[in-house]
Amino acid sequence: MERSASETAALIERLLSFSLPDGGLPYYRGNASAAEPTLLAALALSASGTAADGAAPFLAWARKSQNPDGSIGVNPGHRDQGVWLTAQAAIAFHHYGLNENLARARGFLLSLRSVTIAKDPRLKQDNTLTGWPWVPGTFGWVEPTAWSLIALSLSGLSGHPRAEEGARFLLDRQIPSGGWNYGNPALDDKELLPFWDTTGLALVALHGHADPKRIRDGLELMGKNQEKIESLSGLSWAVLCLESHRRDAGLARVKLLNVMGSLRDEEFHLGNFALGLIALSGKKVFTL
Amino acid sequence: MNRRQFLKDAAALVNFAALADVTQSAPPAPCPVTLLPMPDYGRDLSREIAAVMSADGLQLKGKKVLLKPNFVEAHPERPINTHVAVIANAAQACLRLGAAEVIVGEASGHRRDPWFSVLNPSLRGILDKKVKCVDLNHGDAVSVPNAGRWTGLPTFYIARPVAEADVLISMPKMKTHHWMCVTLCLKNLFGVLPGVYYGWPKNLLHFKGIDNSILDLAGTIKIHYNIIDGVMGMEGDGPIMGKAKPVGALVMSSFSLAADATAARLMGFDPQRIPYLFQAGRFLPGLRRQDVVIRGERPARFAEQFDCLDDFKGMRGGPFF
After folding, report:
1. Distance from CA of A52 to the nearest CA of B (A)
2. Could you tell me which of A39, A23, A33, A12 has the C-alpha nearest to residue A285?
3. Which of A102, A123, A224, A277 could form a disulfide with A44 if both were Cys (CB 3.0 to 4.6 A apart)?
4. Distance, C-alpha A62 to centroid of its chain
5. CB atoms < 10 A from the CB of A2, how many?
6. C-alpha to C-alpha distance for B254 and A143, rounded to whole angstroms
7. What is the DSSP letter of B313?
């Protein structure tokens, strides 16, 4: 289904209505500006073809929030927390050609390593592989690893050893039936359930990094579950992953548009809403 | 680290109790705990819940109340999360007692997507329109000095709605836990820490020791009231992979440790053999059987032997009632 320009404009207008005087966007109304909604909104404006001026306050906010070591934290009040978000900053800096900021963000990402431990034959995963953690000094998990892999791939480092190992990390954490949980594929020999958001994100991140046969089950899982997925985040990732791998996401697209048009303020997660706009744009934002 | 090693380390918490830091002294008065029968989730018990809260001295008139359920992840056939009917009943009870504002807030430990937690239509659809649902994983947080000394963490980042609430009500599910033996009101405090700071799961707390983290949070964050959903608990390999275990009661108390210790006994565990509960007993009241006064139904009516992993069979005890 084609969206009209007026539908897109209305959704963008709603997103921008949450803008705060400091130039950023909050996760939810009533909160302070935070990195994720601000960065994803900048990407959504770029994908939607909105004039670069529209994103200028978001980019200025992000650049100002960048720490001397290149990282970006949750918000300016807690700059050293949530530095996994640096990957999203690197993606935004890449799209807007902010090369100096990108280089610093990328440098930080390359320095950020998950904790690894020796291989345990009783476990169904390889804990010697390095991915990216949510918090420095802890284990690697699917989501921060996937975001970091996307950031490196977009910015010309898809062949970097960290990117290659990140891809192996994600493939290692894949549930045998095809999707991804948040980390482990199994717990005490019991296969865990796939989550829509982590599965979609991992499939996007693995674009160009995995044998298509290896990720086919994951794509089929997302494709056949388009009807079941109800959430803004899940539908956004369904569209993004299926379309990035040239699969039909028509049903998820229709549902996503309906969800985005009917959210109450209480449910209005601006990071996820911006992600929805990126998905609806059909533009390659997270893949080359 | 595997579970066996983890438990060995945790046992040291009990063995070296004399070295433990004590941040508050435990008052000697017995702690009331009420067992409110709720045989299934189809009952409207808001009036009864309000009566118990009131009898326990909980003052809610004009207050901002935050109900903190436990939403870990959604799994249609497993009783993982606090049931929405219990949350709705508790919210209604708070409104009956004159609360100015009632918020249901959770920072789900496994699911980043709030649709699988407090923004799920199944919850929104059952709550009174006056009750707000807040995703604590994403949003403002305040830095609070860690009042305990177990993890070595200098601060906790607490979701702002929790910090701003006048009254915090912990509403966990009665479950076994494959690292901690049981997960109840105190463990439920992990869900006041935003995932955007701590991740999904909150792996930093695992690195610092789950026991240690519970104890530090218990010493730092004041829980004003506790309602454990024991209508349908979980036994075996909880908190995710276990099986349903009906108990048919809500466990209610102003005292978190008394509620947890009583629930543990109902589940067939001796709380004094569960390392983190034992240590919590050094600064919170209600650990020992004689520290608790049980009101309402006879506890024997609800006492069950919860199945558990082999590693926790040594923590069983009783019969207590």
Report:
1. 27
2. A39
3. A277
4. 17
5. 5
6. 38
7. G
Give the integer Cα–Cα distance in Å for B40 and B38.
6
Q: How many CB atoms lie within 10 A of CB B313?
A: 11
Residue B122 contacts A where some CB pair is shorter than 8 Å: no
CATH number corresponding to A5-281 = 1.50.10.20
State the Cα–Cα distance between residues A202 and A225, nearest whole angstrom.
16
Q: Indicate yes or no: CB of A135 within 8 angstroms of CB of B199.
A: yes
Size of interface A-B (CB pairs under 8 A): 109
The predicted pLDDT at position B21 comes to: 39
Length of chain A: 288
Q: How far is B168 from chain A (nearest CA, A)?
A: 20
Write the ipTM. Answer: 0.97
Task: Output DSSP code: residue A2.
Answer: P
The DSSP code sequence of B12-68 is HHHHTGGG----SPPP-SPEEEEEEE--STT---HHHHHHHHHHTT---TT-EEEEE
Does residue B15 have a pLDDT over 50? no
**Nearby residues of B177 by Cβ (< 8 Å), 6 or more positions away:** B183, B187, B238, B239
CA distances B253 to A2, A61, B32, Å, are: 56, 46, 6
Indicate if the pLDDT at residue A138 is higher than 80.
yes
Architecture of the domain defined by B3-15+25-315: 3-Layer(aba) Sandwich (3.40)
What are the structural domain ranges in chain A?
Answer: 5-281
Residue A121's pLDDT is 77
Band of residue A104 on the pLDDT scale cut at 50, 70, 90 = very high
Each residue of B269-306: pLDDT tens digit?
A: 999 999 999 999 999 999 999 999 999 999 999 999 99
Q: Which helix (H) or strand (E) holds A202?
A: helix A196-205
Query: Given CB atoms, is A186 within the 8 Å cutoff of chain B?
Result: no
Contacting residues of A for B132, CB less than 8 Å apart: 266
pLDDT digit string (tens) for B115-142? Answer: 999 999 999 999 999 999 999 999 999 9
Q: Is the pLDDT of residue B9 over 60?
A: no
CB B278 within 8 A of CB B12: no
Residue B11: band (very low, low, confident or very high) from pLDDT cuts 50, 70, 90 = low
Listed by start position, the domains of chain B span: 3-15+25-315
Q: For a pLDDT cut of 70, what percent of chain B falls above it?
A: 91
CA dist B167 and B58 (Å) reads 9
Confidence of residue B73 (pLDDT cuts 50, 70, 90): confident
